[in-house]
Amino acid sequence: MNTPPPTPQYLVRTGDPLRDRDTVLSIWWGNLGREDRIAAKYDWFYLAGPHGAPLLQLLQETGSGQYVGTACAGRRRMCRGGQSLQAGVLVDLAVLPEHRSLGPALMLQQGLIEAADREIDVLYGFPNPKAAPVFKRIGYTHLTDLVRHARVLRHAAYLKSRLPGVLAAIAGPLVDMAFATRDGLRRLRGPRLRASWGTAADARMDALWQSAPRGDAVMSVRDCKQAKWRFDDSPLASTRYLWLTAPGSDALVAWFAVQVENAALHVRDFWSKDGGNGMSHACLLALLSAARAAGHASVSVEITGPEQQLRGWQQAGFVPRSKRPIFVRWSRGQTPDANWFFTSADEDE
Question: Which residue ranges does the record assign to the N-acetyltransferase domain (predicted)?
């Protein structure tokens, strides 16, 4: 009778991002992300982060000594009102196929929790729905969802699913013109804003971040340093900025960090003089006008936050399309009740 092989045993070890680079990449290869960019992503996110080395955990199979899994929490600066918070975003859980079971994944996540309890205030992550039970099991709370809102600017493709092709082709530009005219009239009734495009983070972002009210929501710091690392230095996507200023002034009223996919303009992050009180209707109409002028078919944003943060987007015609859960775990026994303000910039890519 054949004796079954022994059940693998594992240890979780604290990793060093510089020393263990090759080990982590060997686990990622073929298992996590696009192979043509994983090395560049590692060097940017793990080695060049402006807030210190991420919390890295490695899973070792004790019998062979082979490292078979990895997980990480990247450091982020957050705040709540006037209080600074050290946060960690959960990223890059990867386990080699022959070791994929609930036990190893739980061990890696528990290792991150123990490291976080020593060093940071809060962990958060965006797990896929299948992983949600695991996060609940180890003490995370599903506090909110990251909701994608979209506004259609070119309606022909949208109307093709509802009208015959010829009618959609005729009606589309007419509908486009009607909405553009309505938005233009609304802009005339509001404060005048000047829009310009940029390709790099700007020091004016610091003054806007410092002067705008933040409310009581937990949010990431949105200054020039953060934007430069998160967007300008990232090897994963190309980002532009839309700057909004008042006539005769160079000071920022608002900014949007945007990325283009096909004909869609995706707002990845933003901030305005209204801060935690939401984005004004005038700023969003200026965004839509700039997007139309650039030829985009739609504008979207992923956001969660207090009702006042969402209200402006909804009033500007943005409609909820889909949502993803966000799980949060406070360290050192903290369980404060809080509102959360997230955008897709709060992820790792």
Answer: 10-164
Alpha-carbon distance of 341 to 211, in angstroms, equals 18
Same domain (yes/no): 294, 340: yes
My answer on whether 184 and 241 are in the same domain is: yes
Counts of helices then strands in the chain (DSSP H, E): 10, 14
Query: Do the Cβ atoms of 220 and 345 come closer than 8 Å?
Result: yes
Does the structure show a pLDDT above 90 at 328? yes
User: Is the distance from CB of 152 to CB of 180 less than 8 angstroms?
Assistant: no
Report which secondary-structure segment, H or E, holds 225: helix 224-227
Both 52 and 171 in a single domain? no
Contact present, 311 and 320 (Cβ < 8 Å): no
In tens, the pLDDT along 46-102 reads 999 999 999 999 999 998 999 999 999 999 999 998 889 999 999 999 999 888 887
CATH of residue 330: 3.40.630
Q: For residue 135, tell me if it sits in a domain.
A: no
Residue 15 exposure: Cα atoms within 13 Å on the Cβ side:
30
Q: CA 172 to CA 157: how far, in whole Å?
A: 8
Query: What is the torsional sign of CA 317, 319, 324, 327?
Result: positive
> In whole angstroms, what is the distance from residue 186 CA to residue 290 CA?
15
Q: What does the pLDDT average to over 39-48? A: 96
Structure tokens at 288: 């839509």
Q: How many residues would you count in the chain?
A: 349
Q: Give CA–CA dist 308/302, Å, rounded.
A: 15
Q: What is the extent of the structural domain holding 83?
A: 10-125
For residues 179 and 51, membership in a common domain is answered with no
Domain membership of residue 192 (yes or no) is yes
